[in-house]
Amino acid sequence: MNWKTLILALIVSFCSLTALGQDESSELNCTVEINADKVSNANKEIFNTLKEAIAEYMNTTKWTDAVFGANEKIQCKLFFIINTYDDATRKMSADLQVQSQRPVYNSSYTTTLINFKDTKVEFTYEPNEPLVFSEVDMQSNLTAILNFYAYFILAIDFDSFAERGGDPYFEKAANVVRLAQSSGESGWKAFEDTKNRSAVLSAYTESQTAEIRTLFYNYHRMGLDQMVVSADKGRDVITKSLNTLKKIYDVAPMSVCLSMFKDAKLDELVNIYSKANTTEKESVYETLYPLWPTEQERLNKIKNPVQDM
């Protein structure tokens, strides 16, 4: 074997190994759970079929042009609680809990990015019906809901690694909302309520409240990711970043992004400030209490963390 042949063989071998380390399917590693305990008038097998169909859809659709290694996939979960089911029309209404996480650099810790409950989920599903992905039209309300949350999960994750890194995926989520708004289905209408999917999109993209995205970058990339190197410096960045919440509250106190941040981060904040000095704890408490006064018991743990026995 001459040297040119050897080099070519090495290149082919390297490319093959690289391909083995990459997964050309979905960027998501999505766990799906369905609880249909409230429904008594249906063959429960339909919910098993639905669970499998949603999991396959989320985990095989290619959502971006980016290449994700198998160990780089975004860990997320969709938990459906079926509230009603009509066997004649196959229509269901549900609550949907959407969760996603991302690893913190140089640690075994994973941090929650999204922990949101959507109470406006309605769709029809025929057993064994294939879920078809399309970017240009609305195949069904179910796939529209799945598309929206896939892009939202991607957008928030990318934002946490690069400032405004989620722009392309917020644009795709916006397109899903535009297509769905003409359908008349629940959960998509602007100003329908303050926590539907249209409101979630607006909270992260409209100028008054979009600074929440910069907060996600500062909090995660410049704060949490740096705490392994210097806990004090990383925590200081997080402390400063939380001032963004007050700015948003001052102009849009009912914005869903404020409650979403609380649901994802409040318990984590208690842990982050467990070793902070008294001045820092007081500062964070004073920032957060006006935003979430009903959470005083949990907020008090920032000032007075429970000591390990």
What does this structure look like?
- By secondary structure, this protein is an alpha+beta fold.
- Helices cover 48% and strands 17% of the residues.
- A four-stranded mixed sheet has the order 2-4-5-6. A two-stranded antiparallel ribbon has the order 1-3.
- The termini are far apart.
- The relative contact order is 0.08.
- The model is unreliable at 1-23 (pLDDT under 50).
Can you lay out the helices and strands and say which pair or pack?
Layout: H1 3-20, E1 22-23, E2 28-35, H2 45-60, E3 68-69, E4 74-86, E5 91-103, E6 110-124, H3 141-161, H4 167-181, H5 197-205, H6 211-223, H7 231-241, H8 243-251, H9 256-272, H10 278-288, H11 296-303
Parallel strand pairs: 2-4
Antiparallel strand pairs: 1-3, 4-5, 5-6
Task: Summarize it.
Helix content is 48%, strand content 17%.
Largest sheet: 4 strands, mixed
Gyration radius over CA:
22 Å
Regarding quaternary structure, what we see is single chain
State the strand order across the main sheet.
Answer: 2-4-5-6
Number of alpha- plus pi-helical segments: 11
| Low-confidence runs of at least 5 consecutive residues | 1-23
H-E order: HEEHEEEEHHHHHHHHH
In total, how many beta strands?
6
